[in-house]
Amino acid sequence: MSDSLATDSSFHPLAFLLGLGPRLGRVLVLVAALALVYLITLLFKPALNTLEERLGVLGWTLSPVDEIEQRITIVAIDEKSLAEVGPWPWTRQQMADLVTAIDIAGAQLQLHDIAYSEQKAGDDNFLAALQASRGAVLAQIPDIQPGQTVQSGLMTHSLSGISCDTASGGIQIPNTQNYLAAHAGLASVPKGHITVTIASDGSVRSAPAVVCVEGAAYPSLAIMGLLQASNRQPLQASIRQGDTLFGPAQVLTLDAYPGLDIPLDQNGDLRISYANLPSNYRAVSAVDVLNGDIDSGLLENTWALVGATAFGSDDIVPTPYNGATSGVELQARILSSLLDVSIPYTPRSASTLLLVLCLGLGLGLYLLAAMDGRTAAYGLPIAAVVIPVLSLGLHMQLLGSANIWLGWLFPAAYGLFAASLLLLLEQSRVRVERGRVFSNLSSYLPSDVAREIAYTLPSSSINARRTNVTLLSADLRNFSAFGELRPPEESAAVLHFFFQRATEIVEQHGGRIHEFKGDSLLAVWDAHDAQAGKQALAAAQQMQQSINQGLLHTHAPIGLEPLAVGIGLEQGPALIGSIGPAHRRTHTLLGDTVAITLRIQEMTAELAHPVLLGECIARQLNDTSLQSQGSYLLSGLTVPHVLYAPSVSDHLEETNDSNQPSLKLLRGGRP
Fold it and tell me: Are strands 197-198 and 191-193 parallel, antiparallel or unpaired?
């Protein structure tokens, strides 16, 4: 097979798979589906990643945590604040007043989601207010996005213990030379970066835990808040590679918090959790804080996140809950995850786990496809729909219960493609097998009967119709005596030649073989007009000449009359269809026309004519020269019938081979 396929320019994969057998074909389909899905994910990676992320967060958005976050309060510089205090940015004195008001309200720590990069009047008062507060952290922004060159302000408060040489140890963290930081006058105030990772669709799903700037590692605003709350110096941390199967790719540890392992991905990013509803984060207007018009205890013993939420502040990002959310909410989410030690992450072996999941799905689909036809026919399309849903459901369950972002798109796509391709293979196999059954049936039965048997359920009732037909009955004379004196293999060869040649002639003249029976056959034309009569007569004459001239005349045993063909023709009504119980049907042709045609064929031996016609077909052939043979009471019938024979001048011409002897029918031969 491989040689023929290698040279066949019209090679068809489906035909090749069908030729391999069911088991190997299914295995190759499953492997091909895996390779196809892998190729598609490579070619359309950005778009597919966006789809996976947007549907993957359904585990959070469909069943979010609905509990107010008591530890964090957002002090929002909102539209109300801008309307009363003035446009943004505010003066340093106004910011100093806000810092003091927050501290008076009882906040333990202030985290400013604002980079004070320019020196302005009032910086001394602002710095004094920050230093007088219970604790404050300002923002600085390392620029990890390509295409810009900016170095403004002074980056401070780096972490020790983290090497920015990514070539050593295989640790990967973002590295840049560009930044926007607070001016040097605020160098004494602790700082943390507020840089986020922007996805290709503009969404923010992760943020670097640490960013290297000019060889020094700077923590995020939330992590710096944890470090400041511990009051431990120096700021010490480390990053190591994950070492467990279900663990993260990298782990950040803080010396100030033994046992706190912050999971990072292979790029050093910390995934942002959207498990909490946006309304869980309490927010108070900055102007209300300045005016002291806030509920008692709203800021007491909390961490205050100060940031701009007004739409004109240019700090707006899309989230799964809202297309326009202030950046300060992202910082609140990161801080909340750190405080809860509930940080989502992707396992370092996620690819291996997804591959194992796909192999399990493939095994299940293989077993499903190997079941009986009805189960596979219904089960595979159902599996093509159910597997993607289950894959997404498994991802959502792991995310909600264990904060594991495994991913769902690859097994979902594999299940869809594998089930669809297996269904195509099995349906093609069924069609091939049905075609083979139909072909086999057609070799035993007329094509219309074979089609009816192949595509309909059997019934115990009579399934027949009345129709007008033209019939031809041909019998091989002396065959019984021939078979008595010759080996069965030779008898079979003679009979095979007779049936094969007769079938070719009948089909050439528009008829079909109804049945082979013993050493005779019955052919049918589905009409009883002159054209059908002429076709049947022409087939009879050609059959008589062709078969008589080539039918083993040289093999006739000594003393045995040679083999010859006797043919009877008639037209009339008949009942054609199937009868018998549902488990054992038979196709039949019934009626007087059938009986008359068979008896006319038997009379060819008595009247020494190879071809005889009944009176009904003779009437249709009024332009054909026929000779009446008289009226006869045919065996088993009660009404006499006039028989006709073609004139000698109407016989087909003899063959041009002068060495071919002419055979003629002898009376008295054994039927």
Answer: unpaired
Structure tokens at 89: 């940015």
Number of alpha carbons in the 13 Å side-chain half-sphere of residue 582: 6
| CATH number for the segment(s) 459-650 | 3.30.70.1230
**pTM of structure:** 0.72
105 phi and psi angles, rounded to 5 deg:
-70, -10
Averaged pLDDT score across all residues of the chain: 86
* Residue 414 burial (CB count, 10 A): 28
Q: Are 139 and 193 in contact (CB under 8 A)?
A: yes
- CA-CA distance, 409 to 413, in Å (whole number)? 6
Burial class (CB in 10 A: 0-12, 13-18, 19+), 55: middle
pLDDT one-digit tens code per residue, 72-85: 999 999 999 999 99
The residue among 159 and 548 whose pLDDT is bigger is 159
Domain extent listing, the chain: 24-56+349-440, 59-340, 459-650
Q: Is 517 exposed, middle or buried (0-12, 13-18, 19+ CB in 10 A)?
A: exposed
Exposed, middle or buried: residue 464 (CB in 10 Å: 0-12, 13-18, 19+)? middle
- Say if residue 563's pLDDT is above 90: no
How far apart are the C-alpha atoms of 307 and 128, rounded to whole Å? 20
pLDDT of residue 637: 84
Top pLDDT among 313 and 569 is at 569
Give the ranges where 310-349 is alpha helix by DSSP (H): 327-340
